[in-house]
Specification:
Distance between the termini: 36 Å
Strand order of the largest sheet: 3-2-1-4-5-6
Structural class: alpha/beta
CATH class of the largest domain: Alpha Beta
Order of helices and strands: HHHHHHEHHEHEHEHEHE
Largest sheet: 6 strands, parallel
CATH superfamily of the largest domain: Glycogen Phosphorylase B
Radius of gyration: 18 Å
Number of helices: 12
Helix content: 40-55%
Number of strands: 6
Number of domains: 2
Amino acid sequence: MLLETATLLLMGKELNKQVHLLPQVARKLEVYFTKLPLPKIDNRKHCVCTECTDCLCDFCYKWKKISTNSINELADIYRGLLRQDLINEVQGYLGSLQEQPEVFVGVHIRRTDYLDWIIDRYKGNPVDEHYFIYAMNLFRSRYKNVKFFVTSDDLPWCKEKFNTQDVVFPVINKGRNNSIEQDFIFLTQMNKTIYDYGSFGFWAAVLAGGDTMLADNYSKKLHPLLAAIKENPPDNWNTLDVNLTVRE
């Protein structure tokens, strides 16, 4: 939803038009933001769509040419709207850690339904643990005191694959798993980011700032968002070829 909303913001600016959010989109955004970045519209009166499909219009494909300035502009908009109560929860958790690292690295690992999406839609192979281990080792080589805070839609898999002392699976509220919005806000409060693919990890990394590592060359068909990043990479972003990562 964050990617679609960003597209709307850019379209409105380019066309000098007021754009709106569908109610179902607004409901999903409200868990992240104190205030919506765009007004809602009554889709029962205005929507002419008969079926939701992947958009192939020129505006959506402009993401392949989006500039770093546009990304920074959108990031400033989103940062100012993030829910302060969730930020306070995350900062409270980080402040309670007995050992304070020099560098906080957010790690987002997308699995579950996205595995089939990568295989079927992009003719690729899902990123495995070797990519993440390689990326973590790069940060370990650069900093003496670093911790990796892992969020994922498949925590059991992650806990099986990553069990070193510097890897943390944060639980903000004891006794229950983090919500999606808590995971997202958590990632935005990190110094650095490692992620594989998808708009969730992308926007979390953009809002966090700092060095970012993301997976590349995992599919025959290039993901549009990855294509945009490779053509106009944000500052301090690096793609890692998953086929060249050291298998440790």
